[in-house]
Amino acid sequence: MVIIMNTDATEQNIRDVIDAIVSVGLEAKVMEGAHQKIVGVIGDKGRMASVPVEAMEGVEKSVAISKSYKLASREFHPQSSIVRVGDVEIGGEVPVVMAGPCAVESREQLFEAADIVKDGGAQFLRGGAYKPRTSPYSFQGLEEKGLEYLAEARERTGLKVVTEVTVVEAIERVCQYADMLQIGARNMQNFGLLKEVGKCGKPVLLKRGLAATIDEWLNAAEYIMHSGNPNVVLCERGIRTYETYTRNTLDMSAVAAIKHLSHLPVIVDPSHGTGKWRMVKPMAFASIAAGADGLMMEVHPNPSKALSDGPQSLTPEHYKGIMEGIGKLASFMKSEPSLRLFDEE
Amino acid sequence: MVIIMNTDATEQNIRDVIDAIVSVGLEAKVMEGAHQKIVGVIGDKGRMASVPVEAMEGVEKSVAISKSYKLASREFHPQSSIVRVGDVEIGGEVPVVMAGPCAVESREQLFEAADIVKDGGAQFLRGGAYKPRTSPYSFQGLEEKGLEYLAEARERTGLKVVTEVTVVEAIERVCQYADMLQIGARNMQNFGLLKEVGKCGKPVLLKRGLAATIDEWLNAAEYIMHSGNPNVVLCERGIRTYETYTRNTLDMSAVAAIKHLSHLPVIVDPSHGTGKWRMVKPMAFASIAAGADGLMMEVHPNPSKALSDGPQSLTPEHYKGIMEGIGKLASFMKSEPSLRLFDEE
Amino acid sequence: MVIIMNTDATEQNIRDVIDAIVSVGLEAKVMEGAHQKIVGVIGDKGRMASVPVEAMEGVEKSVAISKSYKLASREFHPQSSIVRVGDVEIGGEVPVVMAGPCAVESREQLFEAADIVKDGGAQFLRGGAYKPRTSPYSFQGLEEKGLEYLAEARERTGLKVVTEVTVVEAIERVCQYADMLQIGARNMQNFGLLKEVGKCGKPVLLKRGLAATIDEWLNAAEYIMHSGNPNVVLCERGIRTYETYTRNTLDMSAVAAIKHLSHLPVIVDPSHGTGKWRMVKPMAFASIAAGADGLMMEVHPNPSKALSDGPQSLTPEHYKGIMEGIGKLASFMKSEPSLRLFDEE
Amino acid sequence: MVIIMNTDATEQNIRDVIDAIVSVGLEAKVMEGAHQKIVGVIGDKGRMASVPVEAMEGVEKSVAISKSYKLASREFHPQSSIVRVGDVEIGGEVPVVMAGPCAVESREQLFEAADIVKDGGAQFLRGGAYKPRTSPYSFQGLEEKGLEYLAEARERTGLKVVTEVTVVEAIERVCQYADMLQIGARNMQNFGLLKEVGKCGKPVLLKRGLAATIDEWLNAAEYIMHSGNPNVVLCERGIRTYETYTRNTLDMSAVAAIKHLSHLPVIVDPSHGTGKWRMVKPMAFASIAAGADGLMMEVHPNPSKALSDGPQSLTPEHYKGIMEGIGKLASFMKSEPSLRLFDEE
Predict the structure, then answer these.
(1) Which pLDDT belongs to residue B23?
(2) Tens digit of pLDDT for each residue in D17-46?
(3) Which pLDDT band holds residue C345 (cuts at 50, 70, 90)?
(4) Is D305 in the C-facing interface, judged by CB distances under 8 Å?
(5) Which of 262-281 (C) contact B at CB < 8 A?
(6) Which of C210, C261, C319, C338 to mutate to test the interface with B (most CBs of B within 10 A)?
(7) Are the C-beta atoms of residues B301 and B112 closer than 8 Å to each other?
(8) Do B282 and C215 touch (CB under 8 A)?
(9) A52 vs B309: CB contact, 8 Å cut-off?
(10) Which pLDDT value is given to residue D157?
């Protein structure tokens, strides 16, 4: 940490800052500039958490230098991690696709969707049994019934099941039915949920919060990992900006940022990221080209009858077309040395 | 709801949209423009939730017209509500102040803070026993011990206690010790928590989410009210923007927006809203002048030793000065007819 | 400037960074942490502008410490500045109000507006002769005719005239007619315009850019001051955020930030800041309570016939009511010691 | 346009709205809902610009339906446009690359850069002679000298030259030296400049504003086209969000949005879009996969000595590697039917 003093900070102010640093067992080093003094802190910065240095007199601001997450950081784990869900590898050679309806609406709808998803070549079936909705009057999901249908659809197709868990009480139940737990954007900083999900054995798909920084997102992953679960996959799903044409602004560069900062796999959800089915195809291709480890996409047997997120759901035909393209693009990327990414990392 | 068709929508597309509307018992009316057709939906728009009209062919976009919240809306409840916490009225004649440390750190710190808070004239003692923190390595709060200290401080001072609840499992326990439950910004769309908090009898302070729209915030209030709890107070605490000088951007206009859209009381938290203690005074005065029903402020016996949020905590002296100003300003606002707000509502 | 090296930076990397610093005549000081090294730069940081240190190998990031603006900074000019426009003082004891229609639409409309503005007690008449509009098909202003009407209205009422200049070619002409030049939000970083406006003798009202940081805003003021014109008044007019209920998000805390960082006067425009006339009154009062040196407000003889910005224009009645309130509030603020702001600065 | 009335609007309010619509020669149609009435406007909506309907009593809000830009819209020009700069086609079969240093720093630097750019296979040399900089104390560009060097570099290499024009007075001079004029992000709504650039014969590269919506961006293009210049190429360069890890947030979905809404070519600038050279490669590949018509990238003979934007400049080696990848990826995209985009448009 570097502490920048005010231009009018007194000698006593600086001594107080140094004393506070030393009092937690760290070393302080002062640098004198033309107008301002700077105090550098040397040693394990974790201890500085208990020194509210910005509240001390004469302090202009402090700048954190080391990152607050460790288990999620590439610095301490240089090789990229592979998260295994049964026999499927996320973060390996082949991009993984998770597809399905936004919400499980009925047994029939889910089975039909699952067949389409399987047919197109995805490895995961997605579908919400518990739906976090802005309004209490919107469809809230089939809950346990929805989980049962998901498990049945898995039997039927061999697809892995990923589904969202929104409350601690439901974790155990969801674990019985799902292969992978999803933490939704609205719960990315529901720390109680993160801690408990970290204690169950299942791999976790952690969506980026609506307005979360990359740093906060990796800290959320750290919560899960710190509770004992190293199997975290990150999912970029668009962030909130002033732009209203798209539902969210898909932050494609987050893929490259995560690959640089962390060893965890990262996938992209262009359906929520854009909110428009027309944009899913170009953004899916872009994600693969940017080095994403996979995709999450909404597909519905009949989007115009979907109870949730119809406008961003693909028809079966569009979905199949995109899956073919993804396969071709991914193989080409792998075969062509000039398209290799992150070699310099 | 108004549905705007593409310029190249076919007659069949329009018929399909009309059929979908009629199928849920609503009436459709078509308006023909020079280049585009518009379909208006008449009747209870709640039913449209199950018609994913934007996914239908030929549809450009749909525009919601009626609001999705009802219990929180001033349209259906024109008089301003007063929320009573014991003998304290929030939304009444006198602005209410909730003050105290960000986190309960020790019995001594809390008692000292409570005495200062009481002395300055606030009605509520605030203090976090459960702290949602970005990093798992930061101080997470004293938990139940913290609640006990809060209850003791109440005994000692007669102040009401407001404190945050972050997980469903803790609601019952927090209810035993607190007079008012706080839902923090990160949990504003933790719908499971909102529903359960709606079932307990205690009044709720609902902070605005980090990047929540006013509409989403009122829908979050609707969740609590819909579960049976009408005693909701809203708290503006700054929103996330590109500006980095302040910790958040305090949206002062949200006070006026809430007063127009809703009958619920609204208070302002300038400590989190700005992240800088120097800004608390001018923003506290501005909040009162804008018509806020109260304030939440962080005060710490010794901010430079605070375990959390030191840079935005007031010293006892600053706090007392601000309290005096608030009292003077609020009386003057009330006595002076030209400063009356919201008369036209 | 503080330069933070990567955890895997080599000794050679650090030597290269030091050499680059020394080569522009500055001194470098190395601080060794547990995992990372930090290089501090001592001396006039202006010279570092020519050292692209973040592009050097082994560098993680650099952090600027001193501010890039000087003439606008309170650090080098501790007393608050007063900008004089004729006999009107901005930044003095009394808040200054600039009111009038968004655009000059006709001689009649402007005269009627000017009489209302005068009557209510404002010191300045505002009104756009050159209107920057999103679409080329919107009303673009009366241009020189508009300027003439403004000058006539000044004759008639004795009000000062402030009006926007959007292109370098028009500066001379606008100077002939106006008492103060306005730089609009969309031109805040039109550096060519800033430089030229800095050369004319007239005081300048500099609106904050749509998405400008406070730092960029003060740097824009620096451009004008650096060209020889110290008479700059800042105007907060709302920033662009994800919130759609208001036209912009009025950043009330910018008033306090500017008062801390700069000696220049700052006023607030709640009409553009909110986009809704209903919100002008509470936000005007809040601005005064927050310590603003004045207000800019849109008032129109008949807002429902305005060619531009009708929804945010006040009727004559509302305007007069607000003016009365502002006067009362400002006197009270001044008379009451506990409401004094910025004493601690 | 659709006008939504308040729930408590009177019959007279509705009649007034209808009268206002009819008074500009348009037709109004009323739709009665359960709680609210809606008024639809039929006919050329351009005329509604002069009816400030939101300021009328009883009006809740109005919703624009038709777009305000026409010449830039795909609705009125379904085929994609190709912009020709000499013998280079932008928007054609092959993606176009514009590369070079951020700023022209010296004859030697530019020539060296130009040789590298040419060698790698780009069609355009970019380089700023006039640099808009946040601080007046930063390097402002070599101005006319810079233009001369650019023209010399063109002679030497045969590359086309694209360079920024920041003030009206410089347009003529820049036109003498450049093949294509660039409007920078900070000038996207400098309407005076747009109009004048629309009158010169040169093709224009229009960068998206720092916080411009897609709608505003296309309206800016409309200004240029409306002044007589149809040869506009759009350039996505990242937007301003709360995320601080990247310099801007590259809005990759804007490529797909523009392709849907407009017939104009669109390219991507991953250098400014991310601010980090490490991210240029993945974002360049993603842009091509998303269907961009080209790229703008910063390359510098020696980024660690660049006077501007060093951290985001590529070394010659990185640049060549990326160019090879782009070529391979673009050919593959074209050859593979499943990777074709925008067929459904």
Answers:
(1) 85
(2) 888 888 888 888 887 766 778 888 877 666
(3) very low
(4) yes
(5) 273-274, 278-279, 281
(6) C338
(7) yes
(8) no
(9) yes
(10) 98
Note the pLDDT tens digit of each residue in D266-305: 999 999 999 999 999 999 999 999 999 999 999 998 887 7
Token pair for C268: 């607030």
Which chain B residues touch A5 with a CB distance below 8 Å?
none
- Determine the pLDDT at residue D345: 41
The arithmetic mean of pLDDT across residues B196-201, rounded, is: 94
CATH classification code of C2-63: 3.30.70.1140
Interface test with A, best of C1, C242, C244, C248 (most A CBs within 10 A): C242
**Chain position carrying tokens 């889910």:** A110
Query: Cβ of A166 and B52 within 8 Å?
Result: no
Judged by CB atoms closer than 8 Å, whether chains meet at A2 and C66 is answered as: no
Contact D197, D165 (CB under 8 A): yes
Parts of chain D with a pLDDT under 50:
344-345
In this structure, which amino acid lies at residue C173? Answer: R
Confidence of residue C49 (pLDDT cuts 50, 70, 90): low
Q: What is the pLDDT of residues B159-192, one digit of tens each?
A: 999 999 999 999 999 999 999 999 999 999 999 9
| CB contact B256 to C (< 8 Å) | yes
Determine what percent of chain A falls in helix, strand and coil, rounding each to the nearest 5: 40, 20, 40
Mean pLDDT of the region B334-338: 95
Dist. CA C4–CA C36, nearest whole Å:
7
How many CB atoms neighbour CB C317 within 10 A?
9
Q: Would you say B181 and B202 are in contact if contact means Cβ atoms under 8 Å apart?
A: yes
Residue-level length of chain D: 345
Looking at the complex, report in whole angstroms how far the Cα of residue D55 sits from the nearest Cα belonging to chain B: 15
Chain C nearest C-alpha distance from A83 (Å):
26
CB contact under 8 A, D222 and C135: yes
The answer to whether the CB of C27 falls within 8 A of the CB of C41 is yes
A30 touches C at CB < 8 Å: no
Q: What percent of chain B has pLDDT over 70?
A: 96
C337 CA: distance to closest CA in chain D (Å): 38
Chain A residues lying within 8 Å of B46, measured CB to CB: 137
The superfamily (CATH) of domain C83-339 is: Aldolase class I (3.20.20.70)
Test D29 with B31 for CB contact under 8 angstroms.
yes
Q: How far apart are CA D10 and CA A84, in angstroms?
A: 64
In our burial notation (b when 16+ CB lie closer than 10 A, e otherwise), range B36-73 reads bbbbbbbbebeebbbbbbbbbebbebbeebbbbbbbbb
Nearest to B188 by CA among A186, C23, C170, A6: A186
Which mean pLDDT values do the consecutive 10-residue runs of chain A (345 residues) have?
83 89 84 77 70 80 80 92 97 96 94 97 96 87 95 98 95 97 97 96 96 97 97 98 96 97 98 94 98 96 77 92 98 96 58
CA angle B181, B160, B104 (to 5 degrees): 70
| Overall average pLDDT of the B276-288 stretch | 96
C32 touches chain A (CB under 8 A): yes
Domain boundaries, chain B: 2-63, 83-339
Domains B2-63 and B83-339 share a fold: no
Residue range D74-339 forms a domain whose CATH class is alpha beta
Residue tagged 């987050």 (tokens): A254
Q: What are phi and psi of D55, to 5 degrees?
A: -90, -5
Average of per-residue pLDDT values in chain C? 92
